[in-house]
Amino acid sequence: MPGDAHRVLVVGIDGVRLDTLRRLPTPHLDALARQGFLAPVEVDDGTPTMSGPCWATIVTGVTVAKHGVWSNDFTGHRLSVFPDFATRLAEGDGRRTFVAAGWEPLMLARGGGPLFQAPARTAYVSPVADTPEGWDACDEQITEEAVRVLAGDDPQASFVYLGAPDETAHFLGCGSEYERAVLAADERLGRLLDAVRSRPSFMSEEWTYLVVTDHGHADAGGHGGRTEEERTAWLIAAGPGITAGAAPRAVRHVDVTAQVFASLGRHADRHWTLDGRPFAAAPHAVLLDMDGTLVDTETLWLRTARETAAGLGHELVDGDLPFVLGRAVTDTAAHLQQVSGTRRSVRSVAGELDAAFLTAVEAETTALPGASEFLDLLGDMGIPVALVSASPRPVVDAVLKVLGADRFRTTVAEGETPRTKPASDPYLAAARTLGVDPAACLAVEDSPAGVASAEAAGCRVLAVPSFAEIPPAPRRTVLRNLRAVEPQTVWTAGLQA
To answer: What does the CA dihedral 417, 399, 291, 476 come to, rounded to 10 degrees?
Structure first.
């Protein structure tokens, strides 16, 4: 799991248009985008294109309907229920957090503020005048203080706010002076990054960088409307698990806070009811199906079921597969009894299936392509692994001799939970034994029944279909097999549709 070596720096640059950013030479922003991605962010339909609502959404991870900040006057907010990430981490986890900003509503108890209620450490500098020059000087002082803290102290999660581009656009429109303010913000970002890299402990740390703007601007300056220029924001993200050039299909402002928690190895408590989700998060555990996922026993099971069905006078067809694959032996036996019309008991048919399948497994089991390498990868990543199977214990134990029992922290077999797949019980039991939240786990499955079980438990899912098709879905990623799995796959699987 990500531990104390993980750090997050969020830099908020107010009011930078995406088309302006793409047109200007911004070397530090561009370098981060090359390391990770630059993605457009569309301000939600229900969110005013104003700094207060947008920044509140960014740093709380919930929409305006929850945090209640509807304008630049924060009066009536619900930030005590939905606090900013720096406050959650400081008060809930005892994490060292730092916030530096010069805009009053973010930092001071005026007009319903502050947005950042109780970070571990803050730096506030008021602009001497509400002018482009005043805000440029304010951003410079904020940057100097943030550089000092980032280089010499040890904040685990930081937020640094630069407001000059927005104020310049308000006064002068989106012309040359505005572009100079954006370039100045890029230069200040470069100094923040240099401060991080100057840390004596930097080489042993894992840093995630999130640079985000709240809204755009109309050509003449100003915002608050619903034009594309005002509604289009953006996010640059780089760091562990964030694949270069592979932006998610859609990024939202609420995802920023979710990513902060994920990058620190902190799974968001479901009682927080965050609206965002991370785009890269190391799972707290990987819960692996066995048959058809790691070993080629699905073929053996299908052959066993087909031969048993034939003995009962029934020819197995495609329509039988959902009742056979990924199911408990008794489920398959009950189905075969029904479709064949045999007078034999379910127990008798299940006994025949069990005996024949175990004999085949002991004689013929082989690991599927990529399975051993995937287990090695999870071991190298230090992620706990559990085996979650719908097969009975003798079959599981036979397969463990092939895969290596020492690779799994725990195993769950059919009959060891009140219900088996497609019910959630096996995955819930594995997560409980490992002491992790199922929602923080990645389940790897090959059958629709197994996917249904994992998703009912709340897990992210990586599906590698064997005989039955499995379509992509929210919190589900589909791959052809395990051979192409890399660390980034583990970080991102099951997070985006």
So the answer is: 80
Give 14's Cβ-side CA count (13 Å radius): 31
Which tokens go with 364?
């013929």
What digits encode the pLDDT tens for the residues 332-384?
A: 999 999 999 898 999 999 899 989 888 988 888 899 999 999 999 999 999 99
Catalytic residue (choose from 291, 331, 354, 446)? 291
Write the DSSP symbol of residue 264.
T
* CB neighbour class for 254 (10 Å; exposed up to 12, middle 13-18, buried from 19): buried
Q: What CA–CA distance (Å, rounded) separates 64 from 439?
A: 25
Told to judge if 19 belongs to the known catalytic residues of this protein, a careful annotator would answer: no
Torsion 303-308-311-316 (CA) sign: negative
Token pair of 404 as six digits: 């290596």
The radius of gyration computed from the CA coordinates of the chain, to the nearest angstrom, equals 27
In angstroms, how far is CA 306 from the centroid of its own chain? 41
Residues 289, 331, 354, 446: which is the catalytic one? Answer: 289
pLDDT at 357: 85
Catalytic residue check, 289: yes
Alpha-carbon gap, residue 221 to 218, rounded angstroms? 5
Q: What angle do CA 187, 191, 196 make, to 5 degrees?
A: 145
